[in-house]
Structures are given as C-alpha cells and as structure tokens.
Amino acid sequence: MVSPYDLARPGGVQGQVAGLARSLRRLGHEVAVLAPGERAADGAGGFDGTHVVGRSVGLRANGSVAPVSLSPVAAVRVARFARRHAPDVVHLHEPMAPVAGYGCLLTRPAPLVGTYHRSGDSRWYGALRPLAGWANRRLDARCCVSEAARQTAEAAMGGTYEVLFNGVEVTRFAAADPWPTDRPTVLFLGRHEARKGLGVLLEAFASVPGPAVLWVAGDGPESPALRRRFPPSERVRWLGLLGDEEVASRLAGADVLCAPSLGGESFGMVLVEAMAAGCTVVASDIDGYRAAASGHALLVPPGDPAALARALAEAVAEAAAGTGRAAPAPRRAALAHAEGWSMDRLAERYLDVYRRVAGGRRASAAPGGSPSAG
Questions:
Q1: What is this structure's pTM?
Q2: Among candidates 218, 219, 212, 249, which has minimal Cα distance to 233?
Q3: What residue segments make up the domains of the chain, in order of their start?
Q4: Following DSSP, what letter does each residue of 299-344 receive, concatenated?
Q5: In the chain, how many H helices and how many E strands?
Q6: Percent of the chain, pLDDT > 70?
Q7: What share of the chain in percent tops pLDDT 90?
Q8: Is the peptide bond before 113 cis (omega within 30 degrees of 0)?
C-alpha cells in the first residue's frame, strides 16, 4: 500500500491508509505501507511494517499543503520494494499525487489498484493532464472514496470507477475514554488553512452564549494570525497537534464537533468519527459533508458566521439539556450510521477488488490468457 503523503502528518488520506492497513492485518493479511517521511530507508524491509521511501516536503495543492516527496528516488524505492517482495497487489492512494507511486505506474510490478480521494479542482490532475489519462489506464482497478471524488477523476482522466467510501475505526472512537471537561464543549479538528473555515468558526463562537468552551486542535499556516485575533482564554483553548489517542478522547469528551469547511471535501470523515464517539455534529452544508452526515448532523451554509453561531448555540443548549440530537435515541442512530462506514467493512470491499485484479493478472499470464483490461 502506497501513500504519497507523509503518514506522520495528520490528513484524511493518511488516516485511511493507516486504518485500512490495520484492518487488513486483523483479517490475517500481510500489508506493507510505503510513504515519504522524515528519514528515508532503502525499502529493504519486509511486510507488516511502514517503510519511509523519501523525504517529504510541503507542496501547496487544493487549498492545502500536501506533505509529499518530490524525489524520483522515492518512486524508484517503491518499485524496487514491489519487485523484491512480489506482492499480490499494489494499492496506490491518490495515484497522480507526486511521486511515490509513479515507479509502479511505469513498471506495473503487480496488479495495481488506485484509490482517488480528492474532489474539486486538482493541481495534480491539471499539471499532469497529458499523462494522467495514460497513467490512469495502467491501473487494473480504479476506486473513489465518494461520488464527488468520482466526478473529479472522471472529468480529469476519463475511465470508469468503483465508488467505495472512507472507513472509520468505529470501535476506537466508541470505546475511547472521554477527555474531562466541566462545561459544554465544542471541538474543531483540522488543519488551520482557509478552506477549513476555522476563522469562520472562531468568529461565530464569539456569539455563542457561555459557559461553552471551544477546543481548537491542529495547526497550519493560519494559526499565528488566528491566535492573535482570538488569543487563548477560558473560552478558547488552543490544543495544537494531537496524537490518535487524544483525538479519540477529545471527541468522546466533547459535546459538539464543528466542521466549518468552505469546500474541497470529498467526504466528511471527521463527521463520521464524531458520530462514533457520541458527538453532536454541526457542519457546513457542502456535498462531501452532506453525504457523510445523511441527516445525522446540523448543516449550515458555508462561510456564514451568524448561521453557524445559531446552530452551535442550539447544539450546545441541547447537549446541556440532553435533548434533541444530544438525546440517547438520536445518538444511537448516529452511531449505527457510523458503523455502516466501518473500516473493517471497507477492508472486505477492498479484498474483493484485490482478489479480482490478482486473479485477472494470473489469468492473463496463463497460456492463452488475454491481456488485463486495466
């Protein structure tokens, strides 16, 4: 399994890669994860581990900063690892993102499965448009995490795609020990950049009646300016980057998860994680979040601080009173919805894809076999 993004940096794709690898291992399969990072190795290690194949650098894309490797050596290391270990399948996440998976697209050392996560305009697709269609056809199976991601990939490269979903490690969030808090609490989890809408949330929260408190997790290019405008106080707590365990604990302890993104979200993974942890969800009414929420969240127009403030005040009041979306029955319904997106269920879906492409490659290699249709 190949991630183009540094797994040490929080991100939706990175979380999917790590979680899917854990689920596949629990199901008895050997999984090696290759990605850029701080210290590069030569890729000589075996399976059931994570291998750093090149140093990551921050590259602006889709309103964010992607921690990718730009060194061709990373692509060579991934392809070399695949040749050395002869896996049944190589699974490339965001195949067009530079550059870790490019060697496998060129050499096809094993059946290739590609998963596209991005929705909206893509710098990678635009920059690589002359070659993207050719590279996309090198894949034996093409998957997308949402309908929005499928539309983006199809418009850029053509081809057909199987729409799956993003998985949630439901048990990890549902069983987390709640972080202690003595007042109604709203949590923001995400990178501090314009498209995530943190500035809108901070402006809106100033109008939410006390004694509610806002936990702001993460960091990013907007952190210094936003911290100056909204300094740490009894009402606003700046938490910085959190580890996986603390993320789950904070979600379990918070009353409300707020996702105020302005756009560019193919699927609202954090919304489903919050539902699994028992949070009420307040989010922007954008395609990816609407698909993830399926009626289990309070959605407001993106970029509207007044509307967001009203929704947060309502959610906080319900949480304090134990009514509305905070009541036991709606929370159970939200948890049941989250369980439908479980990572183990997603792993089973991918195993069907893996078996199909591995069988197709073996059939094409047999006497009289026809070439793969990938």
A1: 0.79
A2: 212
A3: 12-167+343-365, 170-339
A4: EE-TT-HHHHHHHHHHHHHHHHHT-GGGSHHHHHHHHHHHHTTBHH
A5: 15, 14
A6: 90
A7: 74
A8: no
User: Exposed e or buried b for every residue in 22-54, given b needs 16+ CB within 10 A?
Assistant: bbbeeeebebbbbbbbeebeebeeeeeebbbbb
The highest-level CATH class for domain 12-167+343-365 is alpha beta
The partner residues of 259 in beta bridges, in order of sequence, read 283
Summarize pLDDT for 120-155 with one digit per residue, the tens.
Answer: 766 666 666 778 889 999 999 999 998 889 999 999
Tell me the longest C-alpha to C-alpha distance in the chain: 74
The yes-or-no answer to whether 12-167+343-365 and 170-339 have a common fold is yes
User: Are 22 and 9 spatial neighbours (Cβ–Cβ below 8 Å)?
Assistant: no
Got the DSSP string for 116-135? E---S--HHHHHTHHHHHHH
Q: Output the six-digit token pair for 302.
A: 């993106």
- Please name which of 357, 202, 173, 125 lies closest in space to residue 272, comparing C-alpha atoms: 173
The residue assigned the tokens 């369980």 is: 339
Q: In the CATH hierarchy, which top-level class contains the domain 170-339?
A: alpha beta
